Amino acid sequence: MTHPARTAALLLLAAAACDPQGHQWVSTSRDGVVEVSQAFAGESVTGETAAVYFALRNRGPTEDTLESIVVEGAGSARIHETGERDGIRVMSPVDALPLPADAVTQLVPGGTHVMLLDLARRPVAGDSLKGVLRFRSGREVSLRAEVHGLTDLERVVNNGISRSAG
Ligand SMILES: [Cu+2]
Predict the structure, then answer these.
(1) Cα distance between the two ends of the chain
(2) What is the pLDDT of residue 109?
(3) 86 Cα–ligand 1 center, Å
(4) Nearest CA to 79 among 60, 54, 57, 103?
(5) 43-61: per-residue pLDDT in tens?
(6) Residue 142 Cα, ligand 1 centroid: separation in angstroms?
(7) Pairing mode, if any, of strands 140-148 and 88-94?
(8) CA of 56 to the centre of ligand 1 (A)
(9) What pairs with residue 51 in β-bridges?
(10) What's the pTM?
(11) Which domains does the chain have, with CATH numbers?
């Protein structure tokens, strides 16, 4: 006997398997000059903020600048740089991120990233965050970042909370 619901579930699994981590995803501006790829986000621990990372390629002969980011479900999104003050890692907001001509600019954990603030709901592993990046040139590129779990970090945080609660 063929069960319609089971068939649908199997089809969904097959579709998901084609794109396991979304690493093949690439998005470009209409003129093809600015390209965004390898976008991912860290699962939010507090539920209030989440960090997003991606690679920005500027294929053009002139510099462009990332000026604003809008992500669905986030009240705002800021570009953060990570530095060190008195031996402690600190994040500081910057207004814009320059993209040198003919170069790739990489946003990575522990470095420059986009911080999502005032999230409507907590992003969890498997979620996909969608948004738009806007550049000084007027270019726009769509963003789709897969959310990945921070299992170890979360376990440490949870242990800390249960210990102080007990
Ligand atoms: Cu940050």
Answers:
(1) 53
(2) 85
(3) 18
(4) 54
(5) 887 888 999 999 999 999 9
(6) 21
(7) unpaired
(8) 18
(9) 115
(10) 0.76
(11) 21-161 (2.60.40.1890)
Residue that is written with structure tokens 């002969």 in the block: 61
pLDDT at 17: 40
Residue recorded with tokens 């996909």 = 128
Q: Phi first, then psi: give them for residue 164, nearest 5 degrees.
A: -70, -25
Task: Tell how far the Cα of 8 is from the centroid of ligand 1, in angstroms.
Answer: 40
Judge contact between 116 and 74, C-beta under 8 A.
yes
* Distance from residue 157's CA to the centre of ligand 1 (Å): 18
Say which residue the tokens 């093949």 belong to: 24
Please state, in angstroms and as integers, the Cα–Cα distance from residue 5 to each residue in 10, 12, 17, 18, 111, following that order.
Answer: 9, 11, 19, 21, 45
Residue labelled with tokens 């992500």: 71
